[in-house]
Amino acid sequence: MSKASLATPSITSALPPYVNGMRVGLLGGSFDPPHLAHRAISLFAIKRLKLDRVWWLVTPGNPLKADRTPHALAERMEAARNVAHDPRIAVSCLESVIGTRYTADTIRYLCRRASGLHFVWIMGADNLAQFHRWHDWRHIASGVPIAVIDRPPQSFRALASPAAQALARYRIPENQAASLAEQRAPAWTFLTGMKSHLSSTGLRNKDGSWRTD
Fold first, then answer.
1. Distance between CA atoms of residues 161 and 141, nearest Å
2. What would you measure as the largest C-alpha separation in the chain, in angstroms?
3. Distance (Å, rounded) from C-alpha 198 to C-alpha 124?
4. Are strands 188-191 and 89-92 parallel, antiparallel or unpaired?
5. What is the mean pLDDT of the chain?
6. Dist CA 158 CA 152 (whole Å)
7. Is 33 or 12 the better-scoring residue by pLDDT?
8. Does 63 score more than 90 pLDDT?
9. Please, are residues 147 and 178 in contact by the beta-carbon 8 Å criterion?
């Protein structure tokens, strides 16, 4: 590996290319490992939400999973790029570069730095079920619209969760999801139709490895 590849990326290189007016989905996580469900969710969101791009924000670590040490960021980034394999999906280490630990802080940064973009935060129904545990989750909800991707059998638990109940009046019908990126936050929708049951936890637990080939 060259010295250049070991250098800390700049903010410019960590922030994917964009032009003002783009609709950009944000999919955050440890991607440990990245898998085809991440790709499927991204392509599903691009289609249903009429997005131009989806950025995978590969976090240095998940504060809600402090009991587990993730694989090295460089390894996860490389694996994520191999899995993404689509020009509309960009893999970013932005959170490591700007030093944010929490999604709320990342959202604050992006809304300042790229204010000309229309962001949508993308999460699975399993994350909605615990969204109320996220640091400053109300700021996330008021900062960008949110698209929740159904992940059976998590549907009922997710929609009955404290965060879903608190944000119930801001939910827009699924048949209006294409307008979500243009909505003023708080706004969210619940998208059905994703069939993949893959998860990073399941892949890690299966055999202790996280090969993606």
1. 15
2. 52
3. 12
4. unpaired
5. 87
6. 10
7. 33
8. no
9. no
**The pair of three-digit structure tokens given for residue 147, joined into one six-digit string:** 């698209």
The predicted model scores a pTM of 0.85
Count of other CB atoms within 10 angstroms of residue 197: 10
| 172: its two tokens | 């827009």
Q: What letter does residue 171 receive in the DSSP assignment?
A: B
- In angstroms, the CA 67 to CA 32 distance is 14
What element of type H or E holds 45?
helix 36-49
- In angstroms, rounded to a whole number, what is the distance separating the alpha carbons of residues 194 and 115? 30
**Is 206 buried (19+), middle (13-18) or exposed (0-12) by CB count in 10 A?**
exposed
CA torsion, ordered 147, 11, 20, 120, to nearest 10 deg = 0
- Is the backbone of residue 147 left (phi > 0), alpha (psi -120 to 50) or beta? beta
Q: Which domains does the chain have, with CATH numbers?
A: 19-207 (3.40.50.620)
